[in-house]
Amino acid sequence: MINNFKEKLNSLFDKRDKIPACYAPFTSMLFDQQGRVTTCYCNHSHHLGIYPENTIKECWFGNQANDLREKISNHDYSNGCFPCAYLSTINKDITYSTNYDSYEGKVRIKKYSGLSNKNSLSINMPKEIGFTLSNICNLECKMCDGFYSSQIRANREKLPNLKNPYDKNFLEELKYFLPTLEKANFAGGEPFLIDMNYKIWELLYEMNPNIYIHVNTNATILTQRVKKILNKLNFNISLSIDSIEKENYERIRKNASFEKIIENLEYFLSYHEQRNRKLNLLVCPIQQNWTEIPNIIEFCNGKNIYVRLSITYKPSDSTLSTLDADNLTEIIDYWSNYELPANNIVEQFNKIQLKNHIDLISKWKHEKEEGTDVWESLLVNEYLSGNFEERSEFNRRYLSDILNRNSSKTKSEDYNLFTKKIIDNKLKTLASNYNKKTLSEILSENKK
Ligand code: SF4
Ligand code: SF4
To answer: How far is the CA of 68 from the centre of ligand 1 (A)?
Structure first.
């Protein structure tokens, strides 16, 4: 059923006018909190391998990676690339794959089109590696879950923390890949709280000191240790800040102090200015802050900061995707009526970010009106895939919520079959494995 559904979705999507559809599988790999290796931050379900069961070389040069390369060469998004495929139907510029467009012409991809003999492939070394090596985090943000935050896992989900697979051998294996890397990306958890990151930064200092290092931080951690490493290497920082109003910021980003992050923002700003670079602000437009988005952009314009609006698709009481068509119209009108300046490159970039997000919300609104909810089906698919079990507590609630919301609506036959049968079964399994709750208990709990 899932495969039929994937095929159907695949057939809806535009073919990008280039080969391959995305350069990520040829240039990038990512390590997640539990040792799973994927190609990018967007594809969570196609695993190139799992560390330490597989070596890093096995992940990068193995069949799983080559299968994805072959699929993407043929514009087939069915190996976990559905978010990009979906987004490409709205606006190609908002797909995650555009982050890899700069590799066009720089990597060998020819042999992957019409591929018949995988053994004959000559594979590039990765140009970039993403490290999300732990969920250690000091915050409990509204839209996050315990897979990303140890505090949420302990306090909200009441679960033991995730086991961490990264050890000394991991660092040894990494050494093979570090000298030729062009970029290393760090996210979390909170990257400045993760010890293993400092070890990798020290290795990079020895083996590839000019590498471009990108860090997504919640801006709360600015110790002497952080400042020391910032001054040793070539860092580019994105700060995750979703509100510039103290009360709202602290409601969304629980445990953080607004005054402190504004003070830290000034430090990061001057770090970037001294190096002739631009700081980034990562913002999740959600139900709690959508009226603030134009003001956040104006704030960033005034400080020469790029704003990047992230697509936030969970949980139901935060994401904009669960609002009805009328609410979405209100958001579209509010944002569209806001006249943003475009007098320099930063202002132009920030204005386009808002326009792209308006396009996305318009698509969601259209789907609500049509009763198709392709986006939601896509996410259910994602939640039913590879890493489902490890994020079970969150997924159990999320899927219960989707089932509740959709039980009274009329959907297409496929959609009904897909959601009711599969989610029902999954929830039953999870209910019996977790806290021994029955499906009806979970559903009634969810209605409260
Ligand atoms: S198409 Fe998107 S999801 Fe797939 S590898 Fe590229 S960036 Fe990742
Ligand atoms: S800072 Fe990031 S990882 Fe930590 S709780 Fe917030 S969103 Fe999650």
So the answer is: 10
